[in-house]
Amino acid sequence: MRVLVINPNTTQAMTDEIAHAARAVAAPTTELDCTSPAGGPRSIEGFADEAIAAYHTLETVARTQGQYDGYVIACFGDPGLYACRELSDVPVVGIAEAAMHTACLVAHRWSIVTVIPRVEPFIAEAVHRAGLGQRCASIRCTPLSVLEIEQDIERTKRLILEYARKAIDEDGAEAILLGCAGLGPIDKSMQEALGVPVLDGVACAVTLLEGLHAYGITTSKAKAFLAPEPKELVNCPGTLVAAYARRLETGA
Questions:
Q1: Cys-Cys crosslink for 74: which of 62, 155, 181, 247, Cβ 3.0 to 4.6 Å?
Q2: Which CATH number fits domain 2-95+204-250: 3.40.50.12500, 3.10.100.10, 3.40.50.1110, 3.40.50.1100?
Q3: For residue 14, which of 146, 158, 157 has the smallest C-alpha distance?
């Protein structure tokens, strides 16, 4: 199968790390590309960042329709996830939703350890959107910004370990979700240190997408993820206009 992993921010170093994490778990038969939009924020740390990134992520999905068997949205807020599902014929998996559902298979309650405190509200919304609030023990925010993750990896490990231990000892977490796509490279070292499952959303999303493809399952178009209603798009990229036009022609 062919998979496109989309890093919704525009930092190439993070896109490269995400690609490495995705390829580390992908099956030998999976052809995997990793990209980021041509425009948008360098990091996603608030609702405005998320809205801009979602728009550019949607355009990326529209522009590449027919080229891939599935998409991964590699940001822990899952920006544009539902919109991309409306526009796509193939499955679209967000790393937050993938990590949460995977965690539910191996732990009764789990915590998300993430970056600066201002991201907590939109991560909490992702938990609510997935319907998994009762399974989430806590969202622990570190002082790290997204772009600081790779600047001093040892500091990153120390902080994630510190806050993960608090989640386990004080909040009752039985598994830890790494709440940023850039944290993927530390999943196994954290798991060894903590003694509980530690999940990287990129790895979870790739493996779940492969499972959907192998099982012959794609996104339901019965109601929530119907194609957008026919309408004129004013001053929008031609790729989005073409995607809407194609929906009109196919009725899908």
A1: 181
A2: 3.40.50.12500
A3: 146
